[in-house]
Amino acid sequence: MTMLMRTDPFRELDRLAQQVFGGTSPGTWSRPNPMPMDAYRVGDQFMVEFDLPGVSPEAIELDVDQNVLTVKAERRPREGGEHVEMQVAERPLGVFSRQLFLGDTLDSERIEAQYDSGVLTLRIPVAERAKPRKIAIGTSDTEKKQINA
Fold first, then answer.
1. Which one, of 76, 70, 54, lies nearest residue 122 by Cα?
2. Across-strand partners of 68?
3. For a surface tag, which of 21, 69, 72, 145 has the fewest beta carbons within 10 Å of its beta carbon?
4. What gap in Å lies between CA 5 and CA 57, rounded to an integer?
5. Among 132, 63, 53, 128, which residue's Cα sits nearest to residue 93?
6. Contact of 21 with 28, CB cutoff 8 Å
């Protein structure tokens, strides 16, 4: 049972480009992922961590629509305007987004988010209806006692 799925509309394009340009060896083209992510389960919570170095907390948006969680972040250029002369610019700038499709077994109403040291951490609890539970087994004697009581 899948708890979370991610989608990247450029995944097939990346795969095709890697085939055409010979993989990801030095000197070949590869689209960097500006918002790398880890996802794992700890007990009754599903954890998702996004690396967003250089992004201020005010530049991060989280939205849930039905079972789709969208994370949007903007990395802005350095302040200083025309007085800044870039020597090397390898970190991508602009607006980045990722969408996660949350399974029905997750409680999207109780998602918690924390941003610390450039890492956005989401805690998504497992829905109560999806947690394992014990089921009592009745017998015909139990039913008779309950009827007579």
1. 70
2. 65, 101
3. 145
4. 25
5. 53
6. yes
Specify the CATH architecture of the domain 4-76+91-132. Answer: Sandwich (2.60)
Per residue of the chain (149 residues), what is the pLDDT tens digit? 445 555 555 555 555 555 555 444 444 444 456 789 999 999 999 999 999 998 999 999 999 998 899 999 998 887 776 788 888 888 888 898 999 999 888 998 999 999 999 999 999 998 877 667 788 898 887 555 555 55
Distance from C-alpha of 18 to C-alpha of 29, rounded to nearest angstrom: 7
d(CA 106, CA 128): 9
The gap between the terminal CA atoms of the chain, to the nearest Å, is: 43
The token pair that represents 70 in the structure block: 């969208």
Rounded to whole angstroms, the Cα distance separating 84 from 130 reads 54
Are 114 and 45 a contacting pair, CB within 8 Å?
no
At 61, the amino acid letter reads E
DSSP string, 63-116: EEETTEEEEEEEEPPPTTGGG---S---S--EEEEEEEEE-TTB-GGG-EEEEE
